[in-house]
Amino acid sequence: MIVVMKPEATKEQIRHAVERVQEMGLKAILLEGTNRNVIAVIGDKRETAQEILAAIPGVERAVPILAPYKIASLEVKRERTTIPLGSGVIGGRRVAVIAGPCSVESRAQLLEVAHAVKEAGALGLRGGAFKPRTNPYSFQGLGRTGLEYLAEAREATGLAVVTEVLSPEQVELVAEFTDVLQVGARNMQNFHLLREVGKVQKPVLLKRGFAATLEEFLLAAEYILTQGNAHVVLCERGIRTFEDHTRNTLSLSMVPTLNERSHLPVAVDPSQGTGKSSLVIPMSRAAVAVGADALLIEVHPDPERALTDGAQSINIPQFQLLMKALRPIAQAIGREL
Ligand code: PEP
Ligand code: MN
After folding, report:
1. Can you identify the CATH homologous superfamily of domain 83-332?
2. pTM > 0.85: yes or no
3. Which of 56, 132, 210, 330 has the greatest number of C-beta atoms within 10 Å?
């Protein structure tokens, strides 16, 4: 249920309403808006509390939320959420581009890519230090050293760093170095991990699991939101289908559908989404056209020699082309890049 406060409700009235919710044995999450504040009420007895809550001073109405996800729902918060990313935001007029290698391989590799993508107009730097690999014999990432290189690249370029956290025990370490915590597709329903990243005050980029439905995706985001972290970016990265001409099937209709259901910003990863470097530019253009707030792009100085995901990584000149190709699309829909 949501308790919608009157626009003129005082701070004291809001505090009192939150306390009343808690007294009833329910959880209250205050969602602050520019026009009015809303309190998301969570717990089993919430329906019986509706009339009592509606009568609290300063409350305009108390309404049940129909969707199974609550805080993530547009029913609770009509205003779109923006999430800080370095010198900009995700979810604003500007489409945020986050680019970099699939894996951090060396200091030189990372710094070369970081400077190049910054120059071309990226806002964030991606790069995996801990890699979730299907094969245990494959390169697993540089670990802590990779995190140190990412922090150095941020210092050198001003780009915000996005890197993956694989387990609940790693959250503290990764959060120390990164600006945004990435939760990978394989971990979308790792509920312990979702709870842990929800307790950290760093934005989370949540990838859609490769067999997850829209509802499961939003419920995974809800796990993070219920812990108090309001900064979740939903990232479509393709799903498994019978089609095998691409690594995954990039489900772009997810972007406008998520925008219909949730106030959270939406990112698209056309690199994992297609598995083919030749498809990254066209699918990025399509993603911007359907309303993506951010793109996550794998860029490598020498894709042929990449330790992970070389086939889907674009090189630096191709990244420059991509940025050029996206600008007219962004402009055509009233956005910028
Ligand atoms: C990645 O971004 O390199 C990655 C492993 O992503 P996903 O979890 O979407 O497979
Ligand atoms: Mn990858």
Report:
1. Aldolase class I (3.20.20.70)
2. yes
3. 56
